[in-house]
Amino acid sequence: xEIFNYDxxxxxxxxxxxxxxxxxxxxxxxxxxxxxxMADTLAHISLLGITIGFFLNIYPLFSAVIVSVFSAIVIEKxxxxxxxxxxxxxxxxxSGSLALTVIIFSVMGGxxxxxxxxLFGSVAxxxxxxxxxxxxxxxxxxxxxxxxxxxLFLSSLDEEIAKVDGVKVSLLNYVLVVLTAACVSLSxxxxxxxxxxxxxxxxxxxxxxxxxxxxxxxxxxxxxxxxSVTSGLFFSYYLGVPSGGAVVxxxxxxxxxxxxxxx
Amino acid sequence: xxxxxxxxxxxxxxxxxxxxxxxxxxxxxxGDYLGIIGPNGGGKTTLVKVxxxxxxxxxxxxxxRGTCGYVPQKAAQEISGLPATVREIIESGEKKNEERIKExxxxxxxxxxxxxxxxxxxxxERQKVFIARALVKNPDILFLDEPSTGVDVASQGKxxxxxxxxxxxxxxxxxxxxxxxxxxxxxxxxxxxxxxNLCFGSPQETLTEKxxxxxxxxxxxxxxxxx
Lengths: 263, 227
Hints:
Strand order of the largest sheet of chain B: 5-6-7-3-8-9
Order of helices and strands of chain A: HHHHHHHHHHHH
Strand content of chain A: under 5%
Oligomer: heterodimer
Distance between the termini of chain A: 40 Å
Structural class of chain A: mainly alpha
Number of helices of chain A: 12
Order of helices and strands of chain B: EEEHEEHHHEHEHEEHH
Largest sheet of chain A: none
Structural class of chain B: alpha/beta
Mean pLDDT of chain A: 91
CATH topology of chain A: ABC transporter involved in vitamin B12 uptake, BtuC
Helix content of chain B: 25-40%
Mean pLDDT of chain B: 85
Number of strands of chain B: 9
Largest sheet of chain B: 6 strands, mixed
Number of helices of chain B: 8
Low-confidence stretches of chain B: none
Low-confidence stretches of chain A: none
Strand content of chain B: 15-25%
């Protein structure tokens, strides 16, 4: 296939598959805990991290992961204090991070940063270094989610039951948001800041419409995500459209069918 | 001498400056069937959470001997968005022990709908699933917070007979209820929480008009059964 004659497309496919596996696995736990907006919030914060990276001339993916992981811990800490409604807290972080991004972006006058690519994803931007980091972190996230699947299931079912069963729920919540932050930061190059939330949430919402048990729902979400990302990358290449938009368009077709079937 | 399963000495608990439990002492023997009653906000659920280690006492000592199973107040009513089957929920208690899972599903009569989603079940059926989940670990003590909420009146008799059967098998049962009649009918011992004075003992000893008036601040009619 001609598409695989280009190194950047091969890198985009490998990174895309890693993200397509990781995102819905995390998404399953976020959606059932009603944390869906967390993914979008961390995506906006990651954009701030990338902009800081360009501003300080450090590796943007690294600064994105650091800023979003730090913010995820702060958000979870504030949320656990229960003094601000959860959705309002996330809205503050979304607006705040975007405001800081646009200020830094205008101060540095762009500095070679292709904002459009980071907003909507671009297959051409995945470098070899990006690919190694995406693969390493994706494997780490998948390993954690698999190893602690019972604990994550229990704390999603009922936090008090989980605590009585000896699960360290608070620590688990912190780790989950930190992994979400890492997953979101990794996904930005392929799918873009404005659309990364869709890859985490839509496959899971689509799978839930099939009304199956937890692990079957997770596997359906995984299949939908993999199919959408790979077909989206093909569409992106052959139609010349941003990869993020193409992937989310495929996801939405799946969701629409499952929603109509369920109605 | 009866073996003590729970020992509570001079327990106090407060949320910030609001005192909820004040200097409570009592013991629960192995195999007891204890009903906890009291007014809303009186500290019934708080006491159970302290016994389970979910909340830490500000003062006093709590000793709980044995493993605990817990069915929280809202577990069966407010199902989270989790798309889980009955079997998946029960397995989350103890996945590897298939024999025990089958036994518990049989005891709790949930085998027929083990592959259904929990969200598709009635309140009473969900309650049984959460009890099954708690039982699968073979607990020494089963804590239930308002267990008959969501169970329709017609099924309540059957539900409490089921709890009594579990108790006969040696499981210590501690349940919270706002319904004095249920506690008077079902429990071997009663603990009143939230009044001016703590009362603890058999239903005949504790559920006196004077104690109930102290507890709720007014007279309440109820039926006392001879056990």
